[in-house]
Design brief:
By secondary structure, this protein is mostly helical. Helix content is 77%, strand content 0%.
């Protein structure tokens, strides 16, 4: 792509693919950054990918952020807050693109620009149909049947993945298609035990939140805030700052969200549940951008052969701080205009 288009196109590609495929989208697109010899361009493309992938957690139904926050903030539905989350992510795209053009982008050399080489409409259409099918099936189970998103995804995704593997191998024959689906199933079961760390982490985070709530009851927190005259907008700004700061220090947002959900429920701190959910969704991905221990940063570190703290604390930190300000302003505006 010619200069000026690479950032938004790469950002949007990893954003929407990541919303459905999660880290698999990063695996598909990371060669664009990893194979660059120009260090400045390598850094810019890396930040674009990390930012685009991370902020999809503001609305992506298959991100763990949505599942956790909908549990931590009862009474909120994904369909009610997803449109606001998508708009919030687009505002962060504008923030990231502006930061890239003003701070990171080198002067464009004189001469003929790089020729435009767009994707064929048929390719874009096939990818869009695939993603819409998966999201639509999960949405039907979630909205019509009343299943939670993680359960709906658990029912839809396995047969969907097997069908996808079959179709990819099917041009070589029906037997090849069946073998492709069986090979995928075998690989999944062989690697399933590696997920036990994530299971332990989520259970531990939940227990940590419940335990802290017994030591610091929500009513006590509400009384402290009332005595200090803190409420509404200040609570939102403080919540966002806390999640960003703890994320930079390496604490996973799932722990912070469970603690906030137990100790500071919306009715205690005086904000609408949707406002609290959007505030936490908006900075969930940003907090992982700045953490040298998050899966996203460790993945980029391994692929780019750079220390994870360089990517999290040096490369990503300025943009995630700017984006967190955008999130705070946007959520506070929604509180007064939509959810008052």
């Amino acid at each position: 792509q010619p200069p000026g288009r690479r950032y938004p196109i790469l950002w949007l590609s990893v954003h929407f693919l990541g919303a459905v495929l999660n880290l698999a989208a990063m695996s598909l697109l990371i060669p664009m950054a990893a194979e660059q010899r120009d260090q400045r361009l390598r850094r810019r493309l890396s930040i674009a990918m990390t930012h685009g992938f991370s902020v999809a957690s503001a609305w992506g139904p298959f991100y763990v952020s949505v599942a956790v926050i909908l549990v931590a903030v009862p009474g909120v539905k994904w369909s009610e807050i997803a449109p606001y989350g998508i708009l919030m992510s687009m505002l962060m795209l504008i923030c990231g693109w502006s930061y890239d053009r003003i701070v990171l982008r080198a002067p464009i050399p004189k001469g003929d620009p790089m020729p435009d080489n767009p994707l064929a409409p048929a390719v874009i259409g096939r990818v869009a149909v695939l993603l819409v099918q998966l999201i639509g099936l999960v949405a039907v189970l979630h909205e019509a049947v009343g299943l939670s998103i993680p359960i709906a995804l658990g029912l839809v995704a396995p047969p969907f993945a097997l069908a996808w593997a079959y179709v990819q191998a099917a041009p070589a024959g029906a037997k090849a298609g069946a073998d492709g689906a069986l090979e995928l199933a075998g690989r999944i079961f062989r690697t399933l035990p590696q997920l036990r760390n994530e299971t332990v982490a989520f259970v531990a985070a939940s227990l940590c939140g419940v335990g802290i709530s017994q030591v610091v009851p929500p009513e006590t927190v509400g009384a402290w805030l009332a005595t200090a005259g803190v409420g509404g907008d200040a609570v939102i700004a403080g919540l966002i700052a806390a999640m960003i700061g703890l994320g930079i220090l390496g604490l996973h947002p799932v722990i912070v969200v469970f603690i906030i959900g137990e100790v500071m429920p919306p009715d205690v701190v005086g904000v609408a549940p949707e406002v609290m959910a959007l505030a936490m969704l908006g900075v969930w991905g940003l907090s992982t951008m700045g953490s040298p221990f998050s899966a996203t940063t460790l993945f980029m570190s391994r692929v780019l052969n750079l220390p994870s703290h360089v990517i999290g604390w040096r490369w990503n930190l300025p943009l995630l701080l700017l984006s967190s300000v955008v999130v705070a302003m946007y959520v506070i505006m929604l509180r007064h205009v939509v959810f008052e």
